[in-house]
């Protein structure tokens, strides 16, 4: 079928004006790499959003989009969820932060304890990086070892980012303490334990990134880790309160010693959580994990309301259903266009990623750019995949799949460089 006439042009005037100002004032023009202008096709995609509700966002020029980034994952119920926002407003009347802990710290710790299998004890941070770093510190203190084995993305702190191509400013001495292994490849972890005998404090991994575990990979990692006297840490910053209420550990039935949560825990308010085994968590009595905003009450009120509503509405079941329709619908469209080898939507339905491959099977940024460009022109804001929230309804899914069909047809026509209406998107970083 022929690609339909492109939708009417939108103005991006204000976005582009702000971008010019930001170039003078803000390095990278964003506080978050994945929201930066080089992650979207400049001149076609908006650069600034100013309003959001449910599954929709509005840019600074008033254009409306169905969003699938969901602020990079935190939005699980929908933007501006009325119950979460009411809980935050009620707390705001009482105060945002106090000179002693708020009772909400105990209440939310109790909710996490009831919900997450490994959570005998609980502490809070603000960003995912706070708690992955806290986990590594606790594991080092508990085991008396210094090295760490990791697999996945774990945030901006030295111990992890030093393993990537964005390691500027990280001392070599720090970099030498973090080792990496490959997902679904237990021998790659065995080799690390063999080469660094008695030195590895913990194994930290995303239990499921986008590739799903095969052949009991998570059980095998747990076995190898424990056999070697190290602690198992699941980085559930993405999977927590998204894949399952109790995280990927509940979904796959493998309980780690420690787990880190963030993103979806408070439907967009800044809260992260480290939870785990009592004897390990008690290390926080001595070591230093402490910050001014650690117990900030608005985010805790948001977390209590979010977790309760996710449970009451059985929201994750609905998120799985919509995510499955998007993933499977997308893959059918790719196959119909004869692109099934180059275009695949993979991952568990609440958080999927689209792989774009060139004819040689290499990741293709130009393909991703054209796809993203064609979606945004049709009112769909897309980064790399579908983060589904409870507010994505059947109409959103149908409209998205129709836009995908047209964008895929455009890819199938070829001449992608010519089709690109702005600069190609760039990779944030690679494994070093
Ligand atoms: C799996 C995982 N861990 C940790 C982090 C770091 O979280 P934050 O950006 O909130 O510091 C992220 C962020 O994307 C993540 O995806």
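Sequence proposed for the structure above (432 residues):
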């Amino acid at each position: 079928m022929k690609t339909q006439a492109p939708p009417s042009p939108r103005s991006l005037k204000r976005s582009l004006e702000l971008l010019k100002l930001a170039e003078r004032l803000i390095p990278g023009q964003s506080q978050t790499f994945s929201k930066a202008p080089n992650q979207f096709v400049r001149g076609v995609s908006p650069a600034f959003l100013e309003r959001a509700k449910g599954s929709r966002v509005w840019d600074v020029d008033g254009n409306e989009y169905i969003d699938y980034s969901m602020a990079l994952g935190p939005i699980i119920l929908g933007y501006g969820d009325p119950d979460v926002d009411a809980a935050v407003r009620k707390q705001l009347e009482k105060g945002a932060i106090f000179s002693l802990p708020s009772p909400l710290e105990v209440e939310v710790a109790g909710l996490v304890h009831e919900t997450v299998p490994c959570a005998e004890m609980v502490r809070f941070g603000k960003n995912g990086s706070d708690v992955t770093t806290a986990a590594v510190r606790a594991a080092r203190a508990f085991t008396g070892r210094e090295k760490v084995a990791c697999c996945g993305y774990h945030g901006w702190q030295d111990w992890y980012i030093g393993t990537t191509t964005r390691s500027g400013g990280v001392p070599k001495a720090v970099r030498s303490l973090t080792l990496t292994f490959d997902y679904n490849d237990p021998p790659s972890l065995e080799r690390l334990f063999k080469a660094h005998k008695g030195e590895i404090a913990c194994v930290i991994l995303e239990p499921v990134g986008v590739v799903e575990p095969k052949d009991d990979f998570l059980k095998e990692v747990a076995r190898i880790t424990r056999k070697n006297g190290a602690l198992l840490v699941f980085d559930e910053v993405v999977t927590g309160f998204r894949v399952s209420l109790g995280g990927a550990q509940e979904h796959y039935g493998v309980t780690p010693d420690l787990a880190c949560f963030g993103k979806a825990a408070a439907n967009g308010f800044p809260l992260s959580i480290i939870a785990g085994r009592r004897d390990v968590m008690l290390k926080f009595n001595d070591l230093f994990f402490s910050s001014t905003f650690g117990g900030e009450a608005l985010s805790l009120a948001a977390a209590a309301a979010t977790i309760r509503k996710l449970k009451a509405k059985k929201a994750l079941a609905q998120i799985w259903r919509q995510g499955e329709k998007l993933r499977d619908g997308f893959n059918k469209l790719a196959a119909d266009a004869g692109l099934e080898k180059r275009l695949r939507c993979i991952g568990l339905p609440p958080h999927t990623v689209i792989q774009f491959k060139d004819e040689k099977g290499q990741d293709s940024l130009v393909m991703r750019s054209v796809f993203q460009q064609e979606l945004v022109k049709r009112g769909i804001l897309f980064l790399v995949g579908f983060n589904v929230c409870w507010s994505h309804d059947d109409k959103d899914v149908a409209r998205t799949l129709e836009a995908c069909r047209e964008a895929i047809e455009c890819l199938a026509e070829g001449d992608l460089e010519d089709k690109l209406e702005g600069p190609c998107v760039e990779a944030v970083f690679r494994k070093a």
